[in-house]
Amino acid sequence: MATQMVAAQLASMVWNNPSQQQFLQFGGSSGSQLPQIQTDVVLPSCKKKAPPDTPVKERLFIVFNPHPLPLDVLEDIFCRFGNLIEVYLVSGKNVGYAKYADRISANDAITTLHGKILNGVRLKVMLADSPREESNKRQRTY
């Protein structure tokens, strides 16, 4: 995972104009080296996460190209819009989800992050289909 992050940063530095980039430090333990995020996105300050048992008002679907970002970086990025309940990745896929306790926070995340590049990884951020809609889809017949 660390080698992917270094490779993504190097690729991003080669392809992007460094004078337009903003370097941000993200949280970690006091004794460890903090990961750097390279992006041209202006992110809001960190906000407190919502408790895990909070009802989900909006779910976002996230697509990563060429590979997913580390989970701790994703949590730090998506919590900046407030009311984040959880961010998780789908194992073996370049996709993940973010759950929000507030629709406005989720819409702010979409507006700010959709189509942007973070550490050489392009993000597509959109509203996820609700589980109720997915269960109403026609069943496959094999």
From TrEMBL:
Keyword terms, alphabetized: RNA-binding
Source species, domain of life: Eukaryota
Pfam families in alphabetical order: RRM_1 (PF00076)
Stretches that traverse the bilayer: none
InterPro entries documented for this protein: Nucleotide-bd_a/b_plait_sf, RBD_domain_sf, RBM45_RRM4, RRM_dom
GO MF term (any one): RNA binding
Domain RRM: 58-130
Gene3D superfamilies: 3.30.70.330
Record protein name field: RNA-binding protein 45
Native organism: Camelus dromedarius
Lineage, opening ranks: Eukaryota, Metazoa, Chordata, Craniata, Vertebrata
